[in-house]
Amino acid sequence: MILESKQKEDIIIYDAEYEDDGKELKQVLKGRLDFSSRLLSKLKRSKSVFINGEYNKYHETVKDGDEIKIVMDEESNHFIPQDIPFEVAYEDVDLILVNKQPGIVTHPTKSHPDNTIANAASWYLMNKGVNCKIRFVNRLDMDTSGLLVIAKNAYSHHVLSQQMQEDKIEKKYIAFVRGVIREDKGRIEAPIHRTSADSIKRIVDENGQDSITEFKVLERYKNATMLEVKLLTGRTHQIRVHMEHIGHALIGDTLYGKDDGELIGRQALHAKYLYFLQPRYRKEVEVEASLPEDLIELRNKLQNM
């Protein structure tokens, strides 16, 4: 697969292979390149798919060696640019991975209309001369730090969201929890349920969605434990709910535990690591985000207690 990238459009060029011979163009785009039905409909309206330089409809047959070119016009960004600290942990033509600091929300809401990661990303891209719509692939709570994925185009957003939904993206976190966990590693399988439509809190309940969390102990302290946590499913508040369920709520988690203001002013959770396949090239990508200052300070406090 070959890429050309411009400010206003994104071009993918794919050379059909033996396995594609005799298939309809739509089959190749969906089966080989993972284009969504929604994006295909958009490309159809703009007549943006070509075989060997000529516009073709989706029912046309593809032959081995045909050059398929897809031109994706990019939508404009609508977030107000703001100069906010913005640590890029990884970037390519399709993605930006941000090492989000605690205390900042992902995108504007009624209670946080500005000073968000979306505003910071807008400033960052504007200064690079890139005009694209900002699409978040994952979410992090305001007080959770770590890796946040931004897609620069609809194609990469769909492919990565699909990987996320199918639990093909490996996610690891650092968590500091209350109490000493004696087992060196463990696995929590407990369904997570939303108590009501207007509640942000989740509980373990048999009516909930299947949820699996694995953990291993990194360090033990007098009354706390530092863990590496791996998510095998991606439920809202999964780590916070599961750790509270086994009696080891996150330090500083006022929703599922209690206030630990003398130690830290937020839940001690950091999205440390992501593994995924780059949406366009399918190459393996591994990214790790350094701990923020407040978690380094927390670790030092616990070690010295």
Layout of helices and strands, plus pairs?
Layout: E1 2-5, E2 9-15, H1 25-31, H2 37-45, E3 49-51, E4 54-55, E5 67-73, E6 88-91, E7 95-100, H3 117-127, E8 135-136, E9 145-151, H4 154-165, E10 170-178, E11 185-189, E12 192-194, E13 202-204, E14 212-220, E15 224-231, H5 238-245, E16 269-277, E17 284-288, H6 293-304
Parallel strand pairs: 9-16
Antiparallel strand pairs: 1-2, 2-5, 3-4, 3-5, 6-7, 7-9, 8-9, 10-15, 10-16, 11-14, 12-13, 14-15, 16-17
Name a few traits of the molecule.
alpha+beta; 10-stranded mixed sheet; 5-stranded antiparallel sheet; Structural Genomics Hypothetical 15.5 Kd Protein In mrcA-pckA Intergenic Region, Chain A; 6 helices; Pseudouridine synthase; 2 domains; 17 strands; 305 residues
Characterization of this structure:
By secondary structure, this protein is α+β, with helices and mostly antiparallel strands. It contains six helices and 17 strands. Strand 12 and strand 13 form a beta hairpin. It is elongated, with a radius of gyration of 22 Å.
